[in-house]
Amino acid sequence: MQCSPLTITVGASDIYGIPAYFTNYGKQLDVLAPGDAVPLIHLNNILGYAAGTSFSSPLIAGITAMHCSIYPLVSFEERVRIIKNSGSGTDEKYVTDLFGSGIVDALKLFKLDELETPAFSLSDEKIIGEVSLEIFAEDGADIYYTTDYTYPS
User: What is the mean pLDDT of the chain?
Assistant: First the structure.
């Protein structure tokens, strides 16, 4: 079966990071996402667990939506390629033509492991006196600054 190049085909990994025994597999598979023993809350607020690729696919959909939000200027085609290539890899013997590029690694995808800890933090304490603040952002980023705890509209 030939899939569209603009789709991301998803398989399930188990709690050990290897392909789940029930997952899809084959050359058409792009990535894996957790799909076995996935924690969920039942209607009566009772913690439960479920399994299936039907739990893996929404994780990738959510990661894709986050990527759209953080990187809005990336073309759809490029976004699909980036996500397909962001697999962290599972055990070497499983990363083959059968299981795509492995489990999507959100740290790598969003470059979260490269973020620096802020040099300062804000608290509820008032600052009295003169304060100088320089804020820098990457191209295309917006900076909002208020002194009255409101979010600018």
Answer: 76
Mean pLDDT over residues 96-107, rounded? Answer: 77
Q: pLDDT digit string (tens) for 73-82?
A: 888 888 888 8
Residue type at position 141: A
What residues contact residue 11 under an 8 Å CB cut-off, 6+ apart? Answer: 19, 20, 23, 24, 25, 29, 31, 32, 33, 35, 53, 56, 99, 100
**What mean pLDDT is predicted for residues 22-31?**
85
109 touches 88 (CB < 8 A): no
How many other C-beta atoms can be found within 10 angstroms of the C-beta atom of residue 58? Answer: 12
Dihedral angle over CA of 102, 105, 109, 111, nearest 10 = -140
In terms of pLDDT, which residue wins out, 28 or 147? 28
141: left (phi over 0), alpha (psi -120 to 50) or beta: beta
